[in-house]
Amino acid sequence: MSNAVGLQDTQALPKGLAPQRDVAERGVPVPQHCRTNRDESVNAPVAIPPPLKQAALIGPDSVLQLIPLLDRHVGREARDRLLEMSGLATLPAREGLMNEQPAAALHQAVRRHHPDEASCVMRTAGALTADHVIERRMPVAALRVLRALPPWLSGPLLANTIEKHAWTFAGSGLFRVRSRDPLIFELANNPVVRGEQSDKPVCHWHAAVFQRLFNEIVDPDLRCIETHCVATGAHACRFIIQ
Ligand SMILES: [Zn+2]
What we know:
The protein is α+β, with helices and mostly antiparallel strands and 242 residues long. The protein has nine helices and six strands, in the order E-H-H-H-E-H-H-H-H-H-E-E-H-E-E.
């Protein structure tokens, strides 16, 4: 018997994605410190992950939640260029999964061409993605149970649920719960940073997804920190919840 408190049936996950509303309308605070400097080198080449033998899929929130934030922080014109260079001439459907490659290319393009805004934009998009999962994907009864439990119990249960549904945010990467005390997640071969190089961890979107889920369901004081990152040469991105 699974000890994970399930999301809705995974095959049904793409259905009913929330209509894209303005971030402010959704009541999610957008950090005001995001800088809005435009990057004129936006047409420079971007590291696009190598093609896979078989198209790997990822949840469209990895792209859709970024759109209003990019509009706000880098402008519509720059956003359109980012989408175009990422192979996203058209936005993914809200229903269904999408090819992970253009989603990864967009994340990398944002970091490369808008480094001052990237962290803030990715963190906010990750939090919005988690909000969407909580609002639209997690059964109300499961949420009620988890929220009624003490954190030492609900934390590992939520980790199990995340692991069970990891394909929605991990794509072709390999996700596992490395430790349950303390809670440590690993995402090997993370497609979102595949081919990318950095001197510090860059997976702010993933960290924000995890942290928001734990803040909203387990403990509002928990923080998620990426301690290792594929982009820095580690074999896996590693996140600690503490
Ligand atoms: Zn990483």
